[in-house]
Amino acid sequence: MRLERRRLDKALVRSEAEFLRAGFRVPAEVASVIESLRPRSAGELDYHGFLREAFHEYLALEFPWQESVRDRLPEDARSAYLDRLAAQKAADSQWLDPNYSRYLQLERAEHKRLLQHFREVKAFEMERHLGELTAICGDMNAAPSVVVKRLMKSMGLAKSPTASSSSVWTFEEEAGTAFGMKIAFPDVLSLRRHGWVGMQCLMPEVSTKVLGMNLFLLGAHEYADWNKTPESIAYSAYVQLQYFKHLQSALRTEFPEI
Question: Among candidates 40, 62, 44, 42, which has minimal Cα distance to 53?
Fold first, then answer.
């Protein structure tokens, strides 16, 4: 089944807005920096609009989306907007979106300063949500597997006994749920050793490919990385799950017939 693009885009925009309204501000902070680097030309989308265009192409690709694999797209799956950016791309550009290309070209010291700022915004967010998170997860010093399992249970997802292992955790909603989700943590070792909280979502009505928050929002990497405490690991999982719950809700609103 292929979802109508117009309504799918409305769901993506709605989920982004609801996520930001819930107090998760890192994506807006990163976007503010990127949009400030140059004025957009007439007809140019902001970076989240760019991500939506790339997402539609991702759905048609066998591989993760990259500019270098766009030539493998069927003609009817190509984004006219991304084609236009490719035609206008400067020789020294490092990315298809011209603003993000400038972001990649910032001096190392400036990147480091901005990364620290984004981490501070994330830490402030976590403090605001810590009471709710503690109420859900209980003792934050419990094993990560215990804390994550409690978090998932609070959102209606149970651990899958057949798909989970010591290296991969998988949780799923009850069968028959509209836009039902399976959530996977594909690299438990990195989570335990380095605080890297990689989360993947499978939502078959949208795609047979896994979805990551990075496909839709700036700042996803900042949430997934640099989690040095049990609280921050739990918060990273909480944030990403909150986004997918907002996406699920928006999809159910736009596609009530499913």
Answer: 44
Residue-number span of the structural domain to which 152 is assigned = 1-22+140-258
Low-confidence ranges of the chain (pLDDT < 50): none
Any domain includes 183: yes
Q: What's phi and psi for 182, nearest 5 deg?
A: -115, 130
The whole model's pTM is what?
A: 0.95
What does the alpha-carbon distance between residue 95 and residue 125 come to, in Å, rounded to a whole number?
30
Per-residue model confidence as pLDDT tens digits over 75-92: 999 999 999 999 999 999
**How does pLDDT run across 144-165, given as a tens digit for each residue?**
999 999 999 999 999 987 777 8
In a domain, 8, yes or no: yes
Number of domains in the chain: 1
Classify residue 10: in a domain, yes or no: yes
